[in-house]
Amino acid sequence: MRMQDIARRLGISAMTVSRALKSDSSVAPATRAAVLKAIEELGYVPNQIAGSLSSSRSGFAAILVPSLNNPHFSETVLALGNALHDRTMQLLIGNTDYDRHKEAELVRAFLARKPEAIILTSDGHDPRILPMLAKAKIPVIEIWDLPARPIQHVVGFSNQLAMRGLIAALIGEGYSRITYLGEADDADTRGASRRLGYCEAMAAAGLAPRLCSIGRPPATMSDGERGLETVLAAYPDTELVACVSDPLAFGVIAACQRRGWAVPGRMAVSGFGDFEIARIAVPAITTVQIDAGQIGREAGAIIGEAFKARRDAMPAAIIRPVPALPCLRASTAKAG
Amino acid sequence: MRMQDIARRLGISAMTVSRALKSDSSVAPATRAAVLKAIEELGYVPNQIAGSLSSSRSGFAAILVPSLNNPHFSETVLALGNALHDRTMQLLIGNTDYDRHKEAELVRAFLARKPEAIILTSDGHDPRILPMLAKAKIPVIEIWDLPARPIQHVVGFSNQLAMRGLIAALIGEGYSRITYLGEADDADTRGASRRLGYCEAMAAAGLAPRLCSIGRPPATMSDGERGLETVLAAYPDTELVACVSDPLAFGVIAACQRRGWAVPGRMAVSGFGDFEIARIAVPAITTVQIDAGQIGREAGAIIGEAFKARRDAMPAAIIRPVPALPCLRASTAKAG
DNA sequence: CTGTTAGCGCGTTCAC
DNA sequence: GTGAACGCGCTAACAG
Questions:
Q1: What CATH number did the domain enclosing B195 receive?
Q2: Cα separation of B165 and B257, whole Å?
Q3: A169 and A140 inside one domain
Q4: Which residue of B has its CA nearest to A277?
Q5: Residues of chain B with pLDDT under 50
Q6: Which of A193, A296, B54, B94 could form a disulfide with A160 if both were Cys (CB 3.0 to 4.6 A apart)?
Q7: DSSP-assigned letters across all residues of B98-115
């Protein structure tokens, strides 16, 4: 069924049907009512592929995240999706699995769909995506970090500074034998940034870094459970395990509890991200607070501004920092 | 940039470029190499919107889930996405927020994109979507439950039987003052099914149902923390809280621990779904094991079979059950 | 307020 | 193995 069929049935032209479906165009109220009624009765669904080709507006924005399974990223995706819904745009979601090559492949596949904006979770990108993005001439937004050399717009925070701030605060609490537990390789540059922040904070206090790793990202609760062994093997005198993320920290705490070790007391543990579990777990987990939803909303706002700016002037790159502050909780409390 | 531009540059026709991009067509190897080289150099990205319009194959499948934030659904989405990737199809993901009306709106919006298959998380659907789906003439797969009156294909398990099995097992362990904690309304019919399963198991043992609720879905850890109060207010003698999901159970356990109550011992708690947290938490949480990834993979396989069947014969509805078995863990262990 | 014309950029279907 | 004509279903841009 095509617009033509609706039109013929009403003795009008397809163009009028098309206009009746866009509420902003000028169509006689009676005509519009008749069109909508006919569409409803016949169960007609417009072909948006044809519409997109004709209008060269796909109605898509694309977002790439390392892992949809991570509640943080899915919250960002959700918030962005809601923001775009208000602009009647849909979201194409891609999962890079912390893999640059897969990211590049997805960028290519998504660009073929002519998205009107693209959001990348800031990471070490495959350099080949840059010319592709430049050619697409659409807003590009990197989220979840503050890259040294941004592609264009940014919504995020410095993972490095945030982790440095947390570790500095913990050192201030009196901890010194702090061991870092994170991913092994640098596929996840947010993880690498956090590790760097840890090292800086330790160095600033005159302490040597103590690094342990658990393999490729993402860092899971199960990794945390195994990770405690790794930490103790390398640094048996550890008094605090600083984890790259909250789920990992939860796993470490669980492993301690299985051993009958008090957390805190026998061992302290910190995380990163302020996942729900960090607030609910017993003990509650010391972490860095991030509002994942806010990142999505801000990204949606930037897309709106970019569209507006295109009409007016040269759209300047927008760098929008979001808060990332340490939050000390029971898991690192010092006894009495 | 269009195919025409590539073609002119090589002194060939656009049609040859098009064929060179589909590896199955007959193009001289030298020609193909030249085309691919030119495309690479110029950074040409084919316009899939035009391709879809012309071939009437969108390359999309659409999936609607109640909540992308739920690690279970995101795992299903991920597995389905991988399965479809092998068929070079992309996944349009929609979040219904446990809302039938929103689901209907999304079905309409997605059908306009001409997906080649649609996957719905089985729920009470808005009846208006049925004619729309029928008209679309594409495979429809309902997942995560076994609906009484399926639309077409199904991959799932009976939430009712699964919960009944779990409760029966717990009654077998010697529990009788079991209180159910779940969502309030029936927006989430999987939750309603589980509640029904609980009631049946209790009735079968001659026990009266003890129902408590925590508001609309999804059931979060925070809901669990508050939920314990609700349970104790209504049924102070509760010895086991049977929760509609693992995160909710985790919240209840956390609330117990904050009161200094031993779990198990002073209170037992069960969940549903076998989320990672159920295995890692201390105590580990008794639950019903579901393989969320398998549901996605099976759905992907059904899409493949449906495409094959279309050529051969009338595609019969496929009902593919997946396992959902009780798993007793420490959180409901009987002392001694 | 409504209709007509002319593409949008590909892939299908023929020719050769 | 390659090219030319045509159409996919809709909307932009113009008439009227």
A1: 3.40.50.2300
A2: 27
A3: no
A4: B221
A5: none
A6: A193
A7: T-HHHHHHHHHHHHTT--
Which candidate, A166, A146, A101, places its Cα nearest to that of A128?
A101
Show which positions of strand D are touched by protein (CB under 7 A): 1-5, 7-13
Residues B66 and B38 in one domain: no
pLDDT attached to residue A127: 93
CB spacing of B280 vs A48 below 8 angstroms: no
Percent of chain A residues past pLDDT 70, beyond the cut: 97
- What CATH number corresponds to the domain at position A39? 1.10.260.40
Does residue B273 share a domain with residue B188?
yes
Chain A nearest-CA residue for B113: A48
Q: Residue B299 has which token pair? A: 């759905």
Q: Which pLDDT score is estimated for A64?
A: 97
Q: Is the CB of A2 under 7 A from strand D?
A: yes
- Looking at the fold, whether A194 and A273 belong to one and the same domain comes out as yes
Is B222's CB within 8 Å of A280's CB? yes
Footprint of strand C on the protein (CB under 7 A): A 11-16, 19, 25-31, 50, 53-54, 56; B 2-4, 14-15, 18, 21-22, 46-47, 50-51, 53-55, 57
Q: Are residues B104 and B40 in the same domain?
A: no
**In this structure, is residue B49 part of a structural domain?**
no
Q: How far is CA A306 from CA A82, A114, B89, in A?
A: 18, 16, 30
Domain count along chain A: 3
pTM above 0.85, yes or no: yes
> What is the domain extent for residue B36?
3-44
How many Cα atoms occupy the beta-carbon half-sphere of A130 within 13 Å? 8
Domain assignment present for residue A121? The answer is yes
Q: In chain A, which residues have their Cβ closer than 8 Å to the Cβ of B132?
A: 43, 45
Q: State the count of interchain CB pairs (< 8 A) between A and B.
A: 116
Kindly tell me if the per-residue pLDDT of A231 is higher than 80: yes
Reference A177, options A21, A332, A12, A41; nearest CA is: A332
Residue type, A268: A
Is the CB of B62 within 7 Å of strand D?
A: no
User: Does residue A227 sit in helix, strand or coil?
Assistant: helix
Residues of chain B with C-beta less than 8 angstroms from the C-beta of A258:
282
Residue type, B267: M
Domain-embedded: residue A114:
yes
Nearest CA in chain A to B275: A221
CA-to-C1' distance for A17 and D13, Å? 17
Same domain, B27 and B37: yes
Q: Specify whether B148 is located in the same domain as B108.
A: yes
Name chain A contacts of B45, Cβ cutoff 8 Å: 108, 111-112, 132, 135-136
| pLDDT class of A86 with cuts at 50, 70, 90 | confident
Nearest nt by C1' to B52 Cα: C10
| pLDDT value, residue B329 | 98
Question: At a CB cut-off of 8 Å and minimum separation 6, what does B85 contact?
Answer: none
What are the residue ranges of helices labelled H in B12-70?
Answer: 14-21, 29-42, 48-55
**pLDDT at site B127:** 93
Q: Which of A62, A147, A157 is nearest to A110 (CA)?
A: A62
Same domain as B169, residue B280? yes
Average pLDDT over residues A2-13: 94
What helix, strand, coil percent values describe chain B, rounded to 5? 45, 15, 40
Chain B residue numbers touching A78 (CB-CB < 8 A):
68-69, 95
